[in-house]
Specification:
Blueprint lengths: L7 H12 L7 H11 L7 H11 L4 H8 L3 H14 L11 H12 L7 E4 L5 E4 L8
Antiparallel strand pairs: 1-2
Length: 135
């Protein structure tokens, strides 16, 4: 904090707050922590929309139809998303679409395990596992 405080008044408030039991953090530290934990902040709102639909299991064609864009636009956006999420497409053992979906789910706080659910009409979707019944 001593390097970021530029005036005595701010330093005085920080000391009084710390003395009163408050935690005083350097604003630069807080901003760095926020930005490093939010990899999705690198994406545009449109890219976030596309990534959310990828995470839901939509194909490029379905995403294009839903967002009223050309399928080629979706592919171009995905190709722009992967490097922003630090996904190495040169590694053939990694599926970038799945990796991007997992990054999205993790960053959005979706940490519970996911399962495939099949509706009565046979449509598969991702969802949370059913709650266990206890006797």
């Amino acid at each position: 904090m001593k390097k970021s405080v530029t005036d005595v008044e701010t330093l005085g408030r920080a000391i009084q707050s710390a003395g009163a039991g408050f935690v005083v953090l350097d604003p630069r530290l807080v901003n760095t922590a926020r930005s490093s934990n939010r990899i999705l902040s690198r994406l545009t709102p449109r890219q976030l929309d596309i990534l959310a639909l990828v995470a839901e299991g939509y194909t490029n064609a379905a995403i294009a139809e839903r967002l009223r864009l050309a399928e080629k636009s979706i592919q171009n956006q995905l190709n722009a998303i992967y490097p922003q999420l630090d996904i190495d497409r040169s590694n053939s053992a990694i599926q970038p679409r799945v990796t991007a979906a997992l990054v999205y789910l993790k960053e959005m706080g979706r940490t519970s395990p996911l399962v495939l659910n099949r509706s009565a009409s046979g449509i598969l979707s991702l969802g949370a596992p059913a709650a266990r019944q206890t006797d």
